[in-house]
Every structure is written in C-alpha cells, then in structure tokens.
Design brief:
CATH architecture of the largest domain: Up-down Bundle
Largest sheet: 4 strands, antiparallel
CATH superfamily of the largest domain: Multidrug efflux transporter AcrB transmembrane domain
Distance between the termini: 12 Å
Helix content: 55-70%
Strand order of the largest sheet: 3-4-2-5
CATH topology of the largest domain: Multidrug efflux transporter AcrB transmembrane fold
Radius of gyration: 30 Å
Shape: elongated
Number of strands: 14
Number of helices: 25
C-alpha cells in the first residue's frame, strides 16, 4: 500500500503520462473558471452570521418571527445647507422632494422612508438646524439591499446637484459596499506586488525565466481552482466576500513555495547527472514528501478556524484550506508532468550575471559561516534569539481586541464622510439602535412595571440618546424597546453600555416579571462576537498544537523535534503579536510605515494569525529538517547533518520566505486597517521565522541536544514510518529486447 501512495511513485506515474495529467488539470481549471464567472457572485456575502445561538441572535430571531419580519438594512440620507435651515421653505421643499423620489423607487428597493416634516421629531435635526436626516428602510435581503442602495445614493446626488444642497448617504448597505470595494482594490494591489516581487526573487534563486515562471503559473492555477470550488460550495453555504482575498494571499504564498521546493531539488538532481525521470522521482520522494507533510500541517492548523461558530472564520478557513490543498496537489502531480516535458529546458532562458550568481559558491560559504558561528556558541546563540523575540512578545499581554469599523475607511468614500457628519450632528444610534426584546405577557402589570423601571434606569445613562421607542406585537407576547446610543457600535463606550444593560439594568428591572429579556442589535452582536473569539481562542490553540505535535511526531519519529518546533513557532507568533500591538496600538512607527494607529487589534486577527502562521512556519521547519534527517540517516553525524541541511536549503528557504513576505506586505500596504494588521503580522512572523528561528535557533538547539533530537521511546515504535528523509535508491538497469533501458521509477 505504501508503495502505491508514495510521493515518488506518484511523481513518476505523472511523469510517464504527462499529457493525461495535464489534460485532467486543464479540465479542472476550465470547470473552475466557469463556476467562478457564473456562480461566485451568488456564493459571497457581506453578512456575518453566528452558527450558534448567542443572545443577540436569539433576540433578533424573536423579533423577526413575531414583530418585524426579516431584518432590514437601514440607510440615513443627510441633507445639509451652509446658509438655509430646516425652517426655510425652500429647504423643506427640497427635502420633501427627495423623500418623494426615494419613496417612488420600486417596492423591492425601498420599504419605507420618512422625514422631519412628517414626524416632527427634533432628533432628526442638527443642533444648528442646518442639517436633517431622511431615514430609509431598504427592502429585500441584506445582499439585495447592498445591490440596490446605489439608487438612493444616485437620487441624493441628483437632488444635491440641482439644489446646491449637500446630500450624503451612509448605513450598513453603503458601508458594506465600500468595504468590499476597498477589499477588491487591496487584493489587486497584493497580486501586483506579490507576483512582481515573487518573480524577482525566483529569478535570483533560479537564474532562468522558465524555472522562475513555473511557480507563479502553478500558484495562479491553484487560485483559480480554489475560487471555483468556493463558488460551488457557496451555493450551499454562503461565504464572506473576504474569502477571495484570503485565497489570493495564501495561493500566492504556498503555491509558489511548494513549487519552488520541488523544482530546486529537481534541478539539483539534474546537476548531479540524473536524467529527467530519475530527477523527478528523487525530487518526488524527497522534496514532494516534505511538501505533502508541510501542506497537511498547514491544513490541520487551518481546520482550527472551522471550529469557531462564525461565518467569517469558517469562510476564511475553508478558502485557505481549498487553495493549500489544490496547490499541494498541483505540486505533487501537475508539476512532475510539466517537468517531464520540459526536461533540461527548465534551465533555459538564463538571465546574464544572475544565473551565474545562482550557481555560485558564495551562498554556500555564507551558510557555512553562519552555521559554524552559531554551532560554535550554541547556548549563547539560542539565548540571544529567545531574548530578542521574547521582549516584543511581552506586549501581547497589552493587546486590546475589538473592531476599527468604518472610521478606518478612506475619506474619499461618501459613506464615511456621512457617518462622521452623523456622529458629529446627530446620533449614530439612529442607524443601529440597541434593541431590547421582551418575551412574555408584555401587557401584564408586572412586565409593564418592569419596562417602566428599565426605561427609567436606561434614561439615566448618558450614552443613550432621546426617548426609548417601544413597539408591541399584536399578540401582546413580545415587545421591543429601541435605544439610540451616542457612540459607535464598535466603540468601548457602546460595548460597556450593552454589558450594563445585560448585567445590571435588565436583571434589576425584570426580576420576578416572568419575562425573558434579550439584548440585540449591532452593538450586542459585537459583544457576542468578541466574547466568542475570546472563549474559543484557547480551544483553537490547544487543538492546533495537539494535531501539529502528533503529525510532526509521526513524520520525524521523534518527541523532541515536534516539541521544539511548537515552542519555536509560539515564540515567533508571540513576537508578531507584540509587534502588532507596538505598531498599531502604541503607534510606534505607524506613521512611517503608512499604517493607522487604532485603539484595538481586530478581534478575529489573533486566532487567524495563529492558525495561518503556525501552519506556514512549519513549511520551512519540515523542509529544513527533512534535509537534516536525510543527511543524519546517511552519516549518523548530527552536527554535520545540521550544517548540510542549513547550507542546502538556505537559498531556497530564504527565497520562499521573501516571497511570502512580499505577498503579505502587499496586504499591509492596503487601505483597510484589518488588512494592514494582518499583512504586517504575517510578514513579520515569517521574516523572523526564516531568519532568527531557522538560521540561529534551530541549529543551536540541535547542536545542544545532539542525538537526543531524534529520541523516540520504544513504546512508540509502533508508529507508522513515513520515511521522511530516507535516501532515494536509483532504479536498476535492465535489458529489454536486446537493449539496455533504465526503468522510470514507480516508487520511492
């Protein structure tokens, strides 16, 4: 069984039947592209859903079932004049005209709209009386509202251009559209920067255009197929539109790296005199096996994100798993088929000077000197790295998690400018009020007294704006109290207000009333979201650490290697967390780097970074230690094996790391603070891992532990031997029909 599923055998079979393999992949890509263009739009959504039932979701479901119907998106149109006030007849006429135009839109676009002149509500007028608002309730689902909100924005611009008034629109639908637009823009920028930098690095590493172009081509193919899979899966389970960014980022990072590792080993074997088939089989039995286990480690780490009961995490996790799995499959099957057709042409189209440098000995001498210096003073080297990474890691304990929200949108977007005007002159709670759902006999005396007591307590809280709005359903078994808050839905003040409602005001007012009271709305959803990420964080960490330890223990047949790998990864991830806090929360170097300084790190980021970084960091660890183990099994000399592994993988791992850093830096250069934090954290962690961890900490600890690195107790000898690092034995020659032929290897 092992012979059939071996990576060397798989590579050899694909090399023997290259056109069959290539045609299968072409059909897969064509199907994926068709699905992407015809179905991807329907598969993605801006809506963030809980897959469990926190309090905010239970409250919202009660409202939809018994009072309001399906949740509707709300927009606020702000009409302002520098000279006129709401009391001027011309101003009034223009506002009423705009209201009529909006109300005249089809019923599948607008459900309801009102203005100050219809309600007389002074909260709809600014203090200086130069501005008023026109609230609009959009019809249809959230995605339909996002598609239709542009019609309201266009009407506002039309009236504004004809009357000289300033008309701006903001709300959930318009801001979601703007976030989506920036995300697409940032994604395109990432592709340009990532591919450009990757090509430069690949040219330096390989020195030829053909070898440098293959990794980029296979990464692009992996991205297309993963997007196609997302389009198909999204027909059943809609995914966050951010999944496309995730697929592009991970596809470029791992897709290029996996191909880079295998092509490097293939060219190395060609240089020693192997023919193309033998070189493919050897690369398949060694580098491809490392890629397989690296990819499995990444996937296992990403599975942790699927355990969090929120659609944003499951979407990002699933998208990343799709593209990693496809990139791994392409590297193990399609690449050997292509290499069997190209043969020595992989070294074609050499770049003058660079091609000579890529074959030079300077690189080897550099790694010889580096390894020698580290292993001469291993304890000092290890302690220096631990201190250097441990100090920034301490800032992790000062991390505040939350959401930066619309405030970090670029100023060019109308939704942000209108939002800031709404915050300045009105109440942001008019868009997304805090909603208290009372389930019980709401017309009964006890519940009525409780509601009065609650309204009195809430009215004394300075954060709430205006009078509470009360709605009761026809059955008299459900009531809704809406409170407009004067702070943003993601601000600390609003978060604390919801906690006061849940923990103080509601228990005191409704004790003994027999009613169930739930707090819902955007702010309450944020509270439940933050609580869920905090609660699941430790669970995900333990899950990832346990699975990674088990996989690495089986791969390397050692207890020490996986334990060290986990501790080293924790150190680099911790340092990345600390640097994120320093730059984004403390503002150290934020302006210089073009980043936003904010009060909080995005709540989803710590878990996301841990899952992604833990998997990606293992790529280099498995590839490096695979070569070390290969040499150790040949010579039995631990020190020489470490030096050989570091020297033979130094250029390749450094190039792979630079490619990942370039891809992640592309995200960090984006306009959304969430992408800035994500890209910066990923880039810093990979850079630290590929330099201080791999170049110093790994060899120094391996020198200190010696043969104990490969310790496996006898009671674990039953573990399957996956033979990572075993030397490949070339196939024997045999005679066939009077001529000598060399068998194309079928297994490794």
């Amino acid at each position: 069984m092992y012979r059939f599923i071996s990576t060397g055998g798989l590579a050899a079979r694909c090399a023997r039947r290259p056109w069959v393999t290539i045609i299968v992949w072409l059909l897969l890509v064509a199907t994926a592209v068709f699905a992407m263009f015809t179905m991807l739009g329907d598969a993605l959504t801006a809506e963030m859903k809980f897959t469990r039932q926190p309090e905010s979701q239970r409250g919202q479901e009660l409202l939809e079932e018994r009072l309001t119907g399906p949740e509707k998106m709300k927009e606020i149109v702000i009409v302002s004049s520098e000279n006129a006030t709401v009391d001027d007849p011309a101003f009034r006429a223009d506002v009423e005209r705009l209201t009529r135009d909006i109300a005249a839109l089809p019923p599948d676009v607008v459900e309801q709209t009102v203005n100050y002149y219809q309600t007389g509500d002074e909260s709809m007028v600014s203090t200086d009386r130069h501005s008023t608002i026109v609230p609009v309730v959009l019809a249809g689902t959230i995605d339909q509202a996002e598609s239709n909100v542009g019609q309201i924005i266009d009407l506002g611009h039309e009236v504004g251009s004809q009357t000289g008034l300033s008309v701006m629109t903001t709300g959930m639908a318009s801001t979601d559209n703007d976030f989506n637009e920036v995300a697409k823009s940032d994604g395109a920028k990432t592709e340009i920067i990532g591919i450009g930098m990757a090509l430069v690095v690949l040219l330096v590493v390989f020195g030829t255009l053909v070898a440098a172009g293959l990794p980029i081509a296979l990464a692009g193919l992996s991205i297309l197929v993963a997007l196609g899979i997302t389009a198909l899966v999204g027909q059943k389970f809609q995914m966050s539109f951010f999944v496309a960014n995730m697929i592009v980022m991970m596809g470029l990072a791992v897709g290029i790296d996996y191909t880079l590792f295998i092509i490097s080993r293939y060219r190395e074997e060609l240089a020693t005199g192997s023919d193309r088939y033998q070189a493919i089989a050897i690369a398949g039995a060694t580098a491809s096996k490392s890629v397989l286990f690296s990819g499995l480690t990444v996937i296992l780490a990403l599975v942790g994100m699927l355990l969090i009961p929120m659609s944003i995490f499951s979407s990002l996790g699933a998208g990343a798993i799709f593209v990693v799995a496809i990139a791994m499959a392409a590297a193990l099957t399609l690449l050997p088929a292509i290499l069997s057709l190209t043969g020595n042409m992989v070294n074609s189209l050499k770049i003058p000077v660079i091609s000579r440098l890529s074959r030079g000995s300077r690189d080897g001498r550099f790694w010889d000197r580096t390894t020698g210096a580290v292993m001469k003073r291993p304890l000092l080297s290890a302690l220096a790295v631990i201190v250097a990474l441990g100090l920034p890691a301490l800032y992790f304990f000062q991390m505040n998690t939350g959401s930066s929200g619309i405030a970090t949108l670029p100023d060019r977007f109308e939704s942000k400018r209108a939002y800031m005007a709404l915050e300045r002159d009105f109440s942001l709670g008019l868009i997304t009020p805090v909603e208290i759902v009372i389930d019980g006999d709401v017309n009964g005396e006890e519940v009525q007294q409780a509601m009065s007591a609650f309204n009195e307590r809430a009215g004394q809280d300075d954060i709430f704006y205006g009078e509470p709005q009360v709605q009761v359903n026809q059955a008299g078994d459900l009531a809704l109290i809406s409170l407009a808050a004067s702070a943003t839905t993601d601000s600390e003040a609003s978060i604390e207000a919801v906690k006061r409602l849940r923990n103080e005001y509601i228990p005191l007012a409704f004790a003994g009333s027999g009613a169930q009271v739930l707090v819902t709305g955007a702010t309450a959803s944020n509270v439940d979201y933050y609580t869920m990420t905090n609660d699941f964080g430790p669970v995900i960490v333990i899950f990832i650490l346990a699975l990674s330890f088990l996989l690495l223990m089986v791969v390397f047949r050692s207890l020490v290697v996986p334990l060290k790998a986990i501790l080293m990864n924790l150190l680099s991830v911790g340092a990345a967390y600390g640097l994120i806090v320093l730059v984004f929360q403390k503002g150290v170097g934020a302006g210089l780097l073009g980043f936003h300084q904010v009060e909080a790190v995005e709540a989803w980021l710590p878990i996301f970074l841990f899952s992604v970084l833990f998997g990606l960091s293992m790529d280099y660890h498995v590839f490096l230690l695979g070569r070390v183990r290969e040499r150790y099994l040949e010579t039995g000399d631990n020190g020489e094996a470490v030096a050989f592994g570091l020297k033979s993988t130094g250029r390749i791992i450094t190039g792979a790391a630079l490619i990942m850093v370039a891809v992640f830096a592309g995200f960090a250069s984006g306009e959304l603070v969430m992408f800035q934090q994500m890209g910066f954290g990923l880039a810093v962690a990979i850079l630290l891992d590929a330099t201080l961890i791999r170049s110093v900490l790994v060899p120094s600890t391996m020198k200190l532990l010696g043969h104990r690195n490969w310790y496996l107790p006898r009671w674990l000898e039953w573990l399957p031997d996956l033979k990572l690092g075993e030397t490949y034995e070339p196939p024997a020659e045999k005679k066939e029909k009077g001529r000598r032929v060399r068998e194309c290897p079928s297994q490794a």
